Structure formats: structure tokens, C-alpha cells
Fold each of these.
Amino acid sequence: MPTLITETFYFQKLSIDFGKEMQDLIDYYKPIIETIEPNCTFTTLAVFPDKDFYPRTFKGVPVCSVCAIISTPMSETQIHSDSSMTNPETGVNNSLALQIPIEGTEGTDTIFWSSFDESPTTMLTYKTSPSMYNQRCWQKENSFYYLPKRYTCTEVGRCTIDSPYLINVGEYHSVRNIKNTRRVTLSVRFIEDPWHWLG
């Protein structure tokens, strides 16, 4: 099972059978993904507590956001880490994301990095990917990326999201797509990190 085992958790391929719950999630968001504007690579499609937020829970774990990650053909995203989602009841920062393949993930890489950059650039989500969805969800929220200087980064591992993975988006990562077709995944964040899924 593809797993990067270090003192820091980076990623693990999941052996859980998500069954109909997974397919329902994919079927719900696939048509919405097709409405995203061109060149919007990271798009928050839903964020709790929107009144129409779906799904409220996934495999029994409360969900806080669902995002689409779209990598254009022949591209590599900037190395970055995502801001944490804070549990409003406990104050604990959560950084795990369930990554679900939607389209064209074969032969692409999610690459994880370490960095000695002590002052990475901070960039607001809705400014780096100004889709209508991000404008709606994040203009009043503190969702952002940390962007380290490239020369400070060293690769520590990589995986291909060809099935459900749990990854740590609080660690520096990038997506490499050297194919002539786009790559699409869903990224589901949680109010409380589902560490128990790692088994």
C-alpha cells in the first residue's frame, strides 16, 4: 500500500470500501465541476455551514469543505501548503484531506516537499484561483496558501491519486501533470481529521 512513513504524515492510499457514499459524492459534484471557469485550478465548491452544503458527513466524519483540484495539461502547480481548518469546538487545527480521483489522474504525481524557508509567501485562496465559487466561499474567510521559495525545497515523496488517498495538505506539496489532458480530483476536508481511517 503506497504510504510515506516518516515522523511527519504525508499520504496513504486507503483500503476502505466507501461504496455508494463515494459514488453519490462523485455523481453530485461532477456536473458542478464542468461549470468552473478555465484556469481556476483550486475551487471550493461547498463550505460548511452553507444551507445547501453536501455532504454534511462522510463515512461518519463531519465535513467542512469540498474542493475541486484541476491541473491543466502539461503543468506543475507551485509548491504550497494549505491553511488549516480549525475545529470550532476544540480549537484543533486539521490538515488531512480525502483525495478522490475524478478524471485523468493516471500518470500524474502529487509531490511532497520539505522546506527550510522561514518566511514563505502567504496568498489568499480567492486571489490565486478567482473562480465564482472561491469568491463566494472565501472572500470573508481566512483561507490561504503558504508558498515557499523553490530553492529551499527538497522532494520527500510522491504518489498518484488513482484511488482514494488521505493526504496532509498542511505539508508542502505540488501536482505534476505532464499529459495532454487535464487532471481532476475532489478534495474533502473535515472538521475533525479522520486519523482512524489509516488503520
Amino acid sequence: MVLNEWHLVETLVDGEMSVVSCGGVVKDWASVTRHVQPAPDLPVTPIIDEVIRTRRLVTLDLRSRKGAQKAFHIEALPVLGPSGEAHGVQVWVGEPGRIPSPPRIAAGIAWSLERMVIGQTVEASMMSGVLPEEHVPERTPAEYIAKAVKFDDSASLFELGIDPVHGRRWEAPMSVLHADGRVMRWYCWGKGRTDPGNVGLRLLWHDVSDTTSPELPTLSELGMQEMLRSAGVYTGVFAADLAVLTMWLPDAPPWVSWRNIKGGNEIVHPDDRYVLADALATFRSGDTAPRCVDARLRSESGWRAAQLSISPYPGPLSDRLVLVQISTIPDEFDAATDDVQGSDRGVRGG
């Protein structure tokens, strides 16, 4: 094991724990006993269990009775998620008298399948430079993904978030823009949860920018994004049966209000959400031709009519996700004067 370093131990599922980072270097769900325990007769797992139970810092000075009978100083502090439970524990094991360096930033978040929102702690918000007074406890998946300047594993995240398997692992790097303009390297771990009250994903974010340079979009990726912006092409990925926006490719239409809403399904008018499920049912039957329909989307001034070109999502989530290209409709069909709380009027899909 490595002394005088912080070890990040994930505790995303009750009764399980593994080392995912040591000194900012990512580990492959490694053994706690092998990587953190300083001596055979000084087990660390009871200390981690105590931190999980109390949700407080534990500090101990211990001496081994084996071999050279060395003494060790141990500190362990929880990484809490939005429910207050420990998503992980940061453990420092070192020589007596050594003062631990500040631990690298880590935070817990949770994806709720029932509500299709991501709950976050103040610490999670602050990782990207959000001030504590500006903290928002819940974000939609699309809002959270929008933090990233490069994130290539969104499909696997959605797959586990939409169809969780208890204990199934997920991990990926993410490059995130800080409020001060620098790009950070985060590493992320998650496990599926199906127990009551936790159905979805528990996740752990870790800033490893000081040990690993962030990946940036390639020139090809940047060029494609700019081409789409210049052409006014706006495409969203939706979980069709739930009418939930999961992400934009790459940007949202400037008139669509999709931030600071209660849930990802609040973007499409309640009476028009069926058009996404209908399109998916058609794709499942084998007819994969794009479907053009009209629907009302949320805007600052109310519900506004839009034309949606709905296509199958390429990849393993094609039975759940759809691609939706959004265009405006001429003003005479605009529903922007409708109250944002809903209206029985509107444009219906066809």
C-alpha cells in the first residue's frame, strides 16, 4: 500500500466497498484490504464502516503487533450524497506526526429514476465553481451533462440510469468547465440501485485534475458542433416513454426553457408527450423512417409550437431513446401566448 496519501473508497451500495483512487490515480475497484490496510492486524474496513454509520470524521493512532510493530496515523472522512448517506470515504494512512495534505475534492450525487432528476450536494455544485448561495439541489440529466466539454460515455450512463441493475458498476472520465474558465478532469463512478427509495444510480465524482490532464474536444468534434450551430440544427435525446430530455447534441434551441425546471419531462407539453412514445412504438415495430410531428415546448413566454423530426436512437438504447430535431413553426401556429402551466389548446402530432 501507499503511505501518506489519500485513498478514495466507494461505498455506493450497502455492504460493498472498493478503492477507486489512490493519490489521485484511478484504481480498478481494488481491494480495500490490499490497498489501504497498513498491517495484517490493523483492519481498515471497521473504520470505514464507522464513518459510514456516523457520517463523521474518524481519527485514530494505531500500532501493529506484527513484524516491526510500526505505528500509523489514520484519518477517514465521509463523502456524502444528497440523501446524507455516504457515497464514499476518503482514507489517509500515514506515519505518526505527518500532517495529511488536504484531500482532493470528491462529491456524491444520485440519479432518481422515478423523477428523472439528479440530486446533488453543495459540494457537488462547488466542484465546478458554483457559489454555495447559488446551489440548486436538483438538476435534470441534460443540465448535468451540459457541464461537460467532453464526455464520451453518456450512452452507458443513460443505459444504467434508465434501466438500473442493483450493484452494476459504471465509470468514466469527464472534462468539465469550471466557472473560472479552466477545464477540469473528473473521474466518475456509479452503481445501480433498485432498493426502495434509491431506484436509479448512486454516483461519486472526483477531481483528479492535478494528476491527469483533461481531455478536450477534437478539432473534428468542434467543427461538427459549429457546423450544426451555424445551420440552426438543434437535436435532443429523449427517453421517449417518459418524454424526458437526457441531453442536447450539442446545444438547445435558444428559445427553449430547459434549465431550472422540476424534471426532465417538463419540456414537452403534457398533452403532447405522447408523440414521442408513439414514434418509439413505431420504430419498435420495424418502421424506422423518421416521423415529423408538431408539439408544444416550454419557452420563457409560455408553450410554443415546434416541429419535431423524431428518429431512432443509434445504439443499445434504441428501444428507449429517440433523437428529436427541433424546428420552429411560423408565427400563425405559435402557441406562445398559452399559459406555461398548461392549456387544452395546442398543436397535435401527426
Amino acid sequence: MSLEWPADTAAGKEKSPHVWTEMIRKLLTKPIWWWERRRAYSVRSRYHLLPPLSVDKKPARFVVLTTPESLKDAMWTAWSWYRYLQPLGYELQVAVDGQIAELEIATVRQLFPGVVIYEVESSLDFLGDKSPALSTFLKVHPLGKKLGLVLALSAQGALLYADYDVLAFNTPAEILAYAERNIACCMVEDSAGNFDPKIVERCRALGLECIAGFNSGLLYVPKGALSIDLAAELLAGWSPNHPSWFTEQTVLSVLMRSAGAQPLPIRRYVVNTRRQFYWDMDIDYAAVVARHFVTPVRHVMYKTGIPTILRQSRMLVDEKRAESSTKHGSRS
């Protein structure tokens, strides 16, 4: 007597490769994502392999904001952008939300001789005491100092701002074109975006709007384009008892919309979660200007983003050597 299941019964059907793939994904996706996010990436510390870029005092300012814990990432971000901005009259500054040791400051200056490094707190005095709610927000909210930095610096001069996790892979032609015309611009997500509902409600009550999908990781702001008074008005009544991680982003979205900011093309200035999980396809870095490696894909910055910048830096060094060799050859 045969003990085999009939071929046409459910128990006897073989599972398709697709079903097995889905089962494996369900089992492995979260553990692998957990491991990828928490493992150590030695490439973060290899910024010493990048060719130094000297910094001079210039009228236009490019500022990278970082925490002490993210300083290594900020150095990669700063270099990736400043290689394009240095010849165009931009001064690099590194703003730190916290304190860093003298040895770390010296390390930054080895890569960027002449760079200005300062604590964010020092820039907030410029704003004075516009309103109790604004002052409280700047001091208490985890991203309050970021809002204060952008408001204070843009009030004093044109500002190109980047979070420490926004790498540049190609020349930011669109930003430079907007800057030439004195027009604000910003990154936008390929989704609805993340906003503080209480600020959105306040915004609508004032007859104002946000920029759809706005992301505050990369901004160009002409001098005086952002209203500090409007920021204070939006935050009137704000309390730490009603926290949202996206309050700063929502306020900046309203301010940038009021300033006539233009969204940068989402296919070239990328904010998404592609390659969050091991089975997902990553983006084509040769085809984009920049990517904001938001929290769910921060590990992709270390696995792919920074190694890409390192390879590009080696190509840049080789190109300069070839150019120098050609010049010497023509002279002889």
C-alpha cells in the first residue's frame, strides 16, 4: 500500500519558490535589519583616506550640523559636498549640538584646514528672546537647536544647510542654479512626509500651508528669507507636554513655503527607504545628486554610501595626478 499523498491534495502540493522566498523573508528580515543597523562599520573611521580640502572665509556658507556621536558621519557628508562647493565661493562650517574634545577638533581640521567648528548653542544668542514658547522650544526640544541654527544663520547671510547624514554624489546643479537666482529650495520625500499635527493645525488657522513631503535635511535659504517672527507665532503655546519629533521640520516647512522655496527633484535628491531590508534594491548612486540616509536606512549609508564616496575620492585623486602629469609633460 502506498503511503504517498495524492498529487491533487493540498498536503501533497509542493510549495512554489515564491512561497518559500516569502517564508524566508518573514523569518530573516527583522533579525538581519537589526544586525545591519547595530553592527560596527569600520569605514566610518576611514575619512583620513580622503584628500584634505582647505577652507577660506567666503560670503556663502555651507553648514553641516552634527552631534558629537555622529561626527564621523558629518566628516563624510562635509567632504562629499565641499569638493563641489569649495571652488564656488562657499565656506564650510561644522556646527555641533554638544561638546567635542580638542583631539576631535584637530582631526576635523586635518581634513578641512581652516574650517570653523562651533557649538550650536553659541548661535542662538542672535535670536534673542522673541517669545517664551520659541525660546523654550529651542532649548528643550531635541531638534530645537537645529531650528535655531537655521533661523540665526540665514538671517545673517545665505545658507546651504545639510544634516550629517546627507551625502552628495554628484554636482548639485539645481541648488547652485537656485542660489544664483536667490531662490530658496529644499528636499522633499516621495511620500506625504512627516509633520507635527498640532503645528499643522496652527498653520491652517493662520491661513498658511506646508510644503508637501518636506524634509529638513537639506536646505538652501537666501539671506533673510525665513521669518523668525512667524516661527515664534507658529510655536506660540507649544509645550514639552505635547512632544513630536517633527515639530522643527513642520515649522521649517511653513517658513520655507512662505519664502517661496522650490522642491528639488525627488529622483536626484533622494529621501526614501530603498534597501531598508536585505532583499530590497538600492538606488543608483551614479544617477542622483544626494541622498538623505534617514534612520531606517542609516546602515545603507555605511554599507554603500560612504564606500561610494571613498571610491569617488580615489578617482578624483587619480584625475588630479593625471592632470598634473599632463601639465608637467607639456612644459617639458
Amino acid sequence: MPYVIACGDEGVQLNQGTRLGFVGAGFRLEHFTEVVQALKKTFNEDIVIASNDENDWVKKSLDLQEWDQVNASMQQHIEALADREGLLFAGHLPFTDPKPLKHGVKGHMVRPHGVHVANKICFTLGGGEQKYNLGCYVISAEWLAVADPKIAKEVIQSQVDFYTVLAKKPLQIVFEEKGLLGEEVAAKNRAVLESFGITLAAA
């Protein structure tokens, strides 16, 4: 099952592939090059990347108005990002039945059009998203223990800030610690998050 960088939008569902959630699938996310290097060091295998329909981060970043424009632009930009960062581009996740993409990925968008329903941020610590939850924005934290702490904090905080604004309310923090990386790696990543002040009690 490939590890797939995809947006942490609560509507993104992978039926095949394990999601590593990054806002906008890493598009114009500052320090994303360093993040990819840390992910490759952590997982030691090829990593896949996918774009998706109705991406709010891309819409805001490119100052676009129409979702058709956003969808087409994201697909082009994520394919270019894959080339630049040495990732495998799977394709685009649409609002349809689960769609088979390249590199063993299958998935789709499952939230209502134009609506966000998540009330939590889930940080994955031990090997990507293990169980899909429509109530959660997903942020990958598997790489934190091998990254520069200053860069890691900026990357995490910018995503938390964006999802909080998108949700228009404080978001509950949850941790997902299961995964193939194991408990020891998950604990190290959790310790980094907690050093940033991100804990289960935080909103």
C-alpha cells in the first residue's frame, strides 16, 4: 500500500493508499522540500502524491474564484510539484465513486460540495492515516523527529492556522499513533508536537 501525500481536507478518502495529510498536498507550503526529504528519510520508499477537487488552500493561494479553475490548476501544479520533489504523481481525486489512479492509489471526495464538516485536527504520528474520519482534518507528523524543529513548527502551525480559519471555530486536537513506523517513532513525533504546545487538551 503506497504512502500518498494528499490534502488533509476531511473530504479526501483513499480506498487504496495511506494518506500523509498536508494542506493543499504541499502546494506552496513553505519548507515543503525539506518536509519531503524528511518523509523519504522516515519511510525509505517511493512516496506518491495526489491532487483533489475543491481545494480551499489552492483556491486561496492562486486567488481563483471558480472550482473548475481550481481543480484544473491543482492537478497541473501537483504534477509539477511531483516532478520537482521526486514524488510519483497518482492523479486527481474527484467527487465521484472511488476512482483508480496511478501507482496503486484509489480514492475520491466524500464530503458535501462546498461544505466543511470537520471539528477536529488529527495528527498522524506512526505511519499515515489508519482510519478515515469525516470529522477530521489530517496533518502528517511522521517526519517531525528527523526535521529541523524550527521548520517543523512553521509547517505544522501554518496548517493548523489555515484549518482553524476554514472551520470558523476552534478545532479539537487528536493523535493517531498506530502505523508501521511503530510506537517508538510515534512517541518521538508526539513529543515534538507537544514541544510546540500542541496537546490533546488544546483547541
